[in-house]
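Dear U.,

For the methods section draft, I wanted the exact inputs and outputs in one place so we can describe them consistently. I've listed the two proteins in the order they'll appear in the manuscript figures. Please don't edit the token lines directly; just add comments below if something needs changing.

First protein:
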Amino acid sequence: MTKEQTIEHYLELLSSKQPVPGGGGASALAGALGSALGLMVGNLTVGKKKYAGVEADIRGHMAGLETLQADLLRLADEDAEVFAPLAEAYGLPSETEEQRAYKEAVMEERLQTASLTPLKVMESVIRMLAILEDLEQKGSVMAVSDVGVAVQLARAALSGAVMNVYINTKSMKDRDRAAELNEEAYHMLTSGAARADEIYGKVLKRLEN
């Protein structure tokens, strides 16, 4: 499991020619790192007199970030788990008409399954951005730069995950379903990236001033 590996071992696996972990798992991990930085901001805020009025909000955000971090680490593993049967399907025989029909049906099912995991990553990141936006306003001023880094990690997770949706839907025979998945992913990408850029811009402005 991703969370049980050392950073060094994970990077060694990621840089190898093995198919997993790959871009999908790395995107989910980037999101998990963003949630961890958000939690750090929370920990630097709670218990301080200056922020007593927002402490309940911050604690609520921290609980949300802990859940999102666990979800994203699980999705990093899920990304590898759904890739294995898809890779296996590519190797199915296709010499007879019956074999070709079976292979096409299996491929279609597994391509769709492989598209859903990065969509779930994107959904988690969208929820994270809402929390980070509030942390930028209410969190410790000493940690505002960390909110900015968290936002950039979340944005990277979003931008990476969308490509893993598209690469799978591209091979689907059901173009209507593929279009539905692509539209859902594109909406999250555009709205999430815009929100991330807005939050990051606010952080930069505060740091410059």
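Second protein (the one for the lower panel):
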Amino acid sequence: MNMFKGVKATNVEEYLDNVPAERKDTINFLHQFIQKAAPGLKPHFAYNMLGYGSFKYKNYKKEDMDWPIVALANQKNYVSVYVCAVDGGEYIAEKNKNKLGKVSVGKSCIRLKKLEDVNLNELEKVIKLAAKNPGLVGAGEHKNK
């Protein structure tokens, strides 16, 4: 699973320590923000990013995996917040993309260059909803048709 940029970290603290200076404030802020929005989602280091909470799902090889419900990653040109959660058969991030601000939104990924670009009230709602509805469209028990 190498879709995420490799990092020289093995835990949450190392990940945070290794964030480049120009992104440190944004990553640290979002790390705290996610934990405040969904205190039940325990932070952990997962797949070269910070994960918050997890759910079981089978990957394309039919292996059981613990995947983060919410994840935070420093990418080359932006910061990504992954929201692996579904509401009414739609990805929560994608469903709310028009309310999230000047950010780029994929199915379950919110990409931002600057903190000011994101509507934090909406991001908080998305994270709270994700904590209650973890999963991926088509991932077994999370189909809501």
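Candidate sentences for the figure legend, describing the second protein: Residues 140-145 have pLDDT under 50 and may be disordered. Helices lie at 12-17, 21-37, 92-95, 120-132.

Thanks,
Y.
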